[in-house]
């Protein structure tokens, strides 16, 4: 594995992981609101 590839990919992976984490947090919050409203 070329180290330059890692340097290019690491910010993309970080951004992707952060986006997935935020989407997951929002989904959990929405699910809690939905379940508690019943």
Helical/strand content category:
mainly alpha
What is the count of β-strands? Answer: 0
Q: DSSP strand (E) fraction?
A: under 5%
Unreliably modeled segments: none
Q: What's the tally of helices?
A: 1
* Shape call: rod-shaped
Rg on CA atoms, Å: 16 Å
Characteristic terms for this protein:
38 residues, mainly alpha
What does this 3D model show about the protein?
- With 38 residues, this protein is an all-alpha fold.
- It has 1 helix and no strands.
- It has one helix at residues 3-36.
- The longest helix has 34 residues, at 3-36.
- The chain is rod-shaped, with a radius of gyration of 16 Å.
- The termini are far apart.
- The relative contact order is 0.09.
- The mean pLDDT is 94.
Quick structural summary:
The chain has 38 residues and is mostly helical. It has one helix at residues 3-36.
Which helices and strands appear, and what pairs or packs with what?
Elements: H1 3-36
């Amino acid at each position: 594995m070329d180290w330059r590839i890692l340097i290019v990919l690491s910010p993309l992976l970080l951004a992707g992981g952060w986006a997935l984490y935020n989407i997951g947090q929002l989904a959990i919050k929405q699910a809690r609101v939905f379940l508690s409203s019943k």
